[in-house]
Amino acid sequence: MTRKIKVLILSLAVLAAGCGHPTSPPQPGGAAATTPPFELTVLHINDHHSHLDAENSTLSLATRAGRREAINVDRGGFPRITAVMKELEKGSANVIKIHSGDASTGDLYYTLNEGKADADLMNTICFDTFTLGNHEFDNTDAGVKKFIGFLHAGTCKTVVLSANVRFGPSSPMAGTLAPETAQPSVIIERSGQKIGVIGLTVAGKTKNSSRPNSDTTFVDEATAAQAEIDRLTAQGVNKIILSTHIGYEADQALVKKLHGVDVVVGADSHTLLGPESLKEYGMSPEGPYPTRSTDKDGRPVCIVQAWQYGYVVGEAKVSFDSHGEVTRCSGTPWLLIGDNFSRPDAAMLTPVETAAIRADIAASKLLRIAVPDPTATAILAPYHRQKEALGATEVAETKDNLCLRRVPGSKRDVSRSTLGDVCNRNARVNAHGGDIQQIVAEAFLQQGKAYFNADLSIQNGGGVRIDLPPGKVTIKDVYTVLPFKNTLVQLNATGAEIKEALEDAVEGVVGPTLNTGCYPYTGGLRWNLDLNQPKGSRLSKLELRAADGSYQPFDLNKTYKVATISFLADGNDSYTALRKVAGERRIEVGLDYAEAFLQYIRRLPGASKVLTPLPVKDYSTQVFVDAL
Prior knowledge:
Layout: H1 3-17, E1 38-45, E2 55-64, E3 67-75, H2 78-90, E4 95-99, H3 108-113, H4 116-122, E5 129-131, H5 140-151, E6 159-161, E7 165-166, E8 185-190, E9 193-201, H6 203-209, E10 217-218, H7 221-233, E11 240-245, H8 248-255, E12 263-265, E13 291-294, E14 300-304, E15 312-320, E16 326-337, H9 351-364, E17 367-369, H10 374-391, E18 394-398, H11 421-424, H12 427-432, H13 435-452, E19 456-460, E20 471-474, H14 475-481, E21 487-494, H15 495-510, E22 520-523, E23 525-530, E24 539-545, E25 551-553, E26 559-565, H16 566-569, H17 576-579, E27 586-592, H18 593-602, E28 610-611, E29 621-625
Parallel strand pairs: 1-4, 4-5, 5-6, 9-11, 11-12, 12-14, 16-17, 18-28, 19-26, 23-29
Antiparallel strand pairs: 1-15, 2-3, 7-10, 8-9, 13-14, 15-16, 18-20, 19-22, 21-26, 21-27, 23-24, 24-25
């Protein structure tokens, strides 16, 4: 039989099996291994970002035949994750539990105790592996060590993974022994069969957008992954899982470069995967669950991710043949909800309507009503009391949805909003970007004016973490919108340096790192943006707001006073040009950036402080043209 005919038969078999393919020999460099056919269940979450409480959400649910309407219901909450993980684990053999990173940063729980609450709740599940995400490095390598210490304080001893991190000599992680350590991979045995799990941390984004020690580096993801795959296969391991924190698009590109990968359990891009039927419930998936792909040799690979904030527990089912090759992959992204249904306008639901809602949820085979685990609830309770005491103070109200979006347009980052399609498909947001990001940039401009007569401000889209729905705004909300440890900085930069920094940031979005969090928002400066142009020419018609509210041409030769955050002033998140604005041209304001936002709110006119979307003319992105 010719090679072409063999390839044709292989391709037809893959199509017939969905994610399957016939037996083929091990790749060169690997050790031959024959084992009985095997089915593995991978239970996984990612990017829970200290969101330990359930959050109120709105779903489109059927209250009677032929009618759907907006219904409020609780979503997520770590005790629900624990409960569902336990249920699913009991119902399946050969289970591996994976957290693919970014456990920390994003809620007051992290502000209060730097990850201890997250670790304690994770230990109610006992994950087999946890991959270091970029946000695990937000408080330098010492923060990584501290979090691993919290995670290993109990009996679980979850294995912490990253095959591509190289801790530098200054790092407290350098040369450390268990338990506060990270290793490239781990071999897990189930039913006598070996499964290799390899961790990958997004390289460029972590180095440029978090705060690892200066001498801690990150190897190219594909290079590190292949080296570890080869090492494991040489030991007779014929089933390889990558637990990656690099993003959905990057996962799809990565597997095309690799030999011998079977499953990718992803994170970082906060991607909702699932069937198109999710749209009936008011959610927009960005791809199927699992997403089926192939490696460099055409062998099937299953790619999964579990959205964000503990809203989803992924249940991936993968079947292997006797050579450890994937013959089938399937599964369910379970969306965890409560049963406290109500209408947004407070109109009562009848028993018949409530029964119809429950039937609709059962028919979805995706939404899962879950009772929070009592042990996890008890562990969370004292942390919750601390959080409530700090965050309960009301400081403002909103009368509109203040939507979260990093990048304008309808192609990138369009499932980020926790408010659903009311924001994800909002015409203003698609045209100009996130409302809440723009308000934060305006807040920094106004505080910069108060402190040093700032001309403009710069804020990265990814540094703003949540939407604000209509209702009361509390201190907790403010610190959840801006959860990182940043301070305001004054930079005295030329117009050319500012434009260069903005162009660098846009390159971070569309370049190799594919980091939507780089996308720039500014207070007082606006532009048109065309991603089809080369770097350096994407931003045009830059205009600066004058004292009377009019806009004048931005002068590349003039020096401006810029209010930004220490993170960006240090050149992180692709804002490399700002690093050059140093010495006497950089002045530390020293004001916590969440406190700066809080002060802005308190200075809003009137006794009742109201946050509303800015006028469209004051959005930094006036015209957005996405890449063709």
